């Protein structure tokens, strides 16, 4: 079953003003899940009840590398269990953690350890890419290092299709290389204006979203997660149009 979620970082300004109220809007707009980028000091019990009332499912939660260690990770595990979240995702590597091959190997070691603890708790660990992982670190890209240095049973990948395309990859082919390790997709479209590339409302950019979504369906990814970072309209309009287009794409070839 293919499910549609919104990465809440897309509408972070709305979440900062009224997190619970914004979740209600997300459900009304047609999303089945919410992917978290922070919980805005919301008690887990309150969020669990809100999600249940709205019929929304957690589609993962984004976190930082430092939060994948020791007590911080344990707190995330407890919170995830309470709200019914099954996937914790490393959202971003700061520059000091990605300067060279050894940095990436240290990150991989941290991911293996965190993934092992999460697996013992019945949860999954994921990795979300940007563009810098595709830079060469000696013979391999950072992404290739993470793939080779982590245990496939302990780390899955959330592919951000925009950043893969940004670095010149054929997204559908790249999805094939991840095979069973591809757990969710961050779906974005890309507008190209001269030398500038930005994310844009689905269907108004250059990416072949139909082929990407079709491949995701074929590979049975658990969530198609809408994300947008640049806007020419208000956040609500963008979020509503993106889920409408995504729904149409998911209906194709059914």
From TrEMBL:
Residues 24-248 form the Xylose isomerase-like TIM barrel domain. Gene3D superfamilies: Divalent-metal-dependent TIM barrel enzymes. SUPFAM superfamilies: Xylose isomerase-like. InterPro entries: IolE/XylAMocC-like (IPR050312), Xyl_isomerase-like_sf (IPR036237), Xyl_isomerase-like_TIM-brl (IPR013022). PANTHER family: HYDROXYPYRUVATE ISOMERASE (PTHR12110), INOSOSE DEHYDRATASE (PTHR12110:SF41). This is Xylose isomerase-like TIM barrel domain-containing protein. It comes from Fictibacillus enclensis.
């Amino acid at each position: 079953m293919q499910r549609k979620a919104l990465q809440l970082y897309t509408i972070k300004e709305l979440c900062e003003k009224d997190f619970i109220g914004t979740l209600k809007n997300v459900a009304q707009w047609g999303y089945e899940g919410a992917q978290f980028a922070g919980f805005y000091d919301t008690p887990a019990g309150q969020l669990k009840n809100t999600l249940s009332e709205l019929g929304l499912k957690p589609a993962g939660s984004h976190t930082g590398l430092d939060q994948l260690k020791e007590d911080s990770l344990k707190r995330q595990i407890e919170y995830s269990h309470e709200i019914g979240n099954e996937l914790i995702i490393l959202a971003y590597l700061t520059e000091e953690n990605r300067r060279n091959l050894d940095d990436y190997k240290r990150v991989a070691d941290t991911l293996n350890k965190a993934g092992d603890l999460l697996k013992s708790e019945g949860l999954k660990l994921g990795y979300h890419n940007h563009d810098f992982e595709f830079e060469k670190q000696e013979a391999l890209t950072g992404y290739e290092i993470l793939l080779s240095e982590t245990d496939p049973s302990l780390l899955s990948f959330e592919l951000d299709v925009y950043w893969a395309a940004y670095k010149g990859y054929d997204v559908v082919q790249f999805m094939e290389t991840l095979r069973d390790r591809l757990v969710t997709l961050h779906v974005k479209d890309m507008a190209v204006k001269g030398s500038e590339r930005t994310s844009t409302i689905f269907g108004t950019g250059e990416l072949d979203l139909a082929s990407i979504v079709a491949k995701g369906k074929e590979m049975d990814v658990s969530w198609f997660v809408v994300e947008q970072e640049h806007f020419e309209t208000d956040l609500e309009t963008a979020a509503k149009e993106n889920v409408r287009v995504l729904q149409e794409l998911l209906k194709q070839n059914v």
